[in-house]
Specification:
Length: 371
C-alpha cells in the first residue's frame, strides 16, 4: 500500500494556512477532480477522495493538532480512518458543495445523530509500572452533553421546532427548467430543526466542556507504543448519538539497570576475574527483588545466563519472559605487592603450561599430518 501524502502537500498550502486558504484550495481541487466532471477516471476519483480527506482533517482543529504532532499514524491511533466513498464525502460536505457548484453535492441528507469525537491521552509510565501494571486516574477535558438542556440546545422549558422552510427534511427544492434541484436548507442549515430560545449554558450547542477524572487500568506488560481503548470515554455524541472513545498511548521510561527485549529483560553484572575462574554464587537484582545466580568455574567475559520466568508478562497469555544476565569480568587495579607476586607466579605457571602444550602440538603435528 502506497504511503499517504502529506495533507498540506495535497491541498498545496503551507502549514500555517487559514481556514479560508484551506477552503479555497479544496474548492479548486474539488472542481477539478469531481467525479461528475471526470466520469470513469479512476485517478481523478482517487485525487478527489485524497483532497476531501486532507480538507476534512485540516479544517478540524483537533484533528489538525493531532496530525501536526503525530502525522498519519497519530490520526489512525485516534480512530480516524478517512472516508469510505463518495457518499461519505458528499454527506460531510453537502453545504460546501452547494456553495461550490450551486446545487447540493450530497446524495442523501445528513443525519442529525452523530458519534462523538475520539480523544487521545499520552501517559508516561516508569519501567516497573509498565512491567507490573498499575491503575491511574487521569484528568480529561472533553465535551459532554449539557445537563441543563439535555443536549437539545434549547433553553429549559422550551424545545426545538421543525424548520418552517424545509418542513424538517433539511433540504429545499427549487426548479431549474424541467428539473427540481434539492439543496441544503439555509434556514436550519440542513438540520431540519431550529432553536428559537437557545440554552444559555451551552449557547445552543447541546454540549459543554468539562474536566473529568477517568480511571485507567494499565495491564502488566505494556510497552512503548501500546494503546489502550476506553470505550465511551470520548466526547459526547450529537442528538443522542453514542460517545466517542478515549485512546491512551503509553510511553515507558528507560531503567538504569534493566533493558527490555520483548518479554525478556537484559542486564549486565560485574564479577571479578577470581569469581570467573573459580566460580561463585552471587546476588542478582530482578524485577521482583534479589535472587541467587550460580557462576560456574571458567566463566568467560560476555557469557550469558538465563533466569527463567524473571522477565515481563506477555499481554497475550500472561506468561513471563526470562531475565538474561551478561557477566562483565573486571580486571583488578591498584594491586599491592603480595597480589602482584601471586599473579606473577600464576602467570609463570600458565606460561609453562602453554609452552608445554604448544611443544606437544608441534611435536605431534607431522605424524598427524602423515595419517
Amino acid at each position: 500500500m502506497a504511503a499517504k501524502r502529506d495533507y498540506y502537500e495535497v491541498l498545496g498550502v503551507d502549514r500555517s494556512a487559514s481556514d479560508a486558504d484551506l477552503k479555497k484550495s479544496y474548492r479548486k481541487l474539488a472542481l477539478k477532480f469531481h467525479p461528475d466532471k471526470n466520469p470513469g477516471d479512476k485517478q481523478a476519483e482517487e485525487k478527489f477522495k485524497e483532497a476531501a480527506e486532507a480538507y476534512d482533517v485540516l479544517r478540524d482543529t483537533r484533528k489538525r493538532q493531532i496530525y501536526d504532532q503525530y502525522g498519519h499514524q497519530g490520526l489512525e491511533g485516534s480512530g480516524f480512518s478517512g472516508f469510505g466513498g463518495f457518499e461519505d464525502i458528499f454527506s460531510s460536505f453537502g453545504d460546501i458543495f452547494e456553495d461550490f457548484f450551486g446545487f447540493g453535492g450530497g446524495r442523501r441528507s445528513r443525519s442529525r445523530v452523530n458519534r462523538g469525537a475520539d480523544l487521545r491521552y499520552d501517559m508516561q509510565l516508569t519501567f516497573m509500572e509498565a512491567a507490573f501494571g498499575i491503575e491511574k486516574e487521569i484528568d480529561v477535558e472533553k465535551a459532554e452533553t449539557c445537563g441543563d438542556c439535555k443536549g437539545t440546545g434549547a433553553a429549559p422549558g422550551t424545545g426545538v421546532e421543525t424548520c418552517p422552510q424545509c418542513g424538517g427534511s433539511g433540504q429545499v427544492g427549487r426548479s431549474q427548467g424541467f428539473f427540481t434541484v434539492r439543496t441544503t436548507c439555509g434556514h436550519c442549515r440542513g438540520q431540519g430543526q431550529v432553536i428559537k430560545s437557545p440554552c444559555s449554558t451551552c449557547r445552543g450547542q447541546g454540549k459543554v466542556m468539562v474536566r473529568k477524572k477517568v480511571a485507567v487500568k494499565i495491564p502488566g506488560g505494556v510497552d512503548n507504543g501500546s494503546r489502550l481503548r476506553l470505550t465511551g470515554e470520548g466526547e459526547a455524541g450529537g442528538y443522542g448519538g453514542p460517545s466517542g472513545d478515549l485512546y491512551v498511548f503509553i510511553h515507558v521510561q528507560d531503567h538504569d539497570f534493566f533493558k527490555r527485549e520483548d518479554t525478556h529483560v537484559l542486564c549486565e553484572i560485574p564479577i571479578s576475574f577470581i569469581q570467573a575462574a573459580l566460580g561463585d554464587r552471587i546476588k542478582v537484582p530482578t524485577l521482583k527483588g534479589e535472587t541467587d545466580l550460580e557462576i560456574p568455574k571458567g566463566t568467560q567475559p560476555g557469557d550469558l545466563f538465563r533466569m527463567r520466568g524473571e522477565g515481563i508478562p506477555s499481554l497475550r497469555n500472561g506468561h513471563r519472559g526470562d531475565q538474561i544476565v551478561q557477566v562483565n569480568v573486571k580486571t583488578p587495579t591498584n594491586l599491592n605487592k603480595r597480589q602482584v607476586a601471586l599473579l606473577k607466579e600464576f602467570a609463570s605457571l600458565e606460561s609453562n603450561k602453554f609452552t608445554s602444550k604448544l611443544k606437544s602440538i608441534l611435536k605431534s603435528g607431522p605424524s598427524r599430518a602423515a595419517n
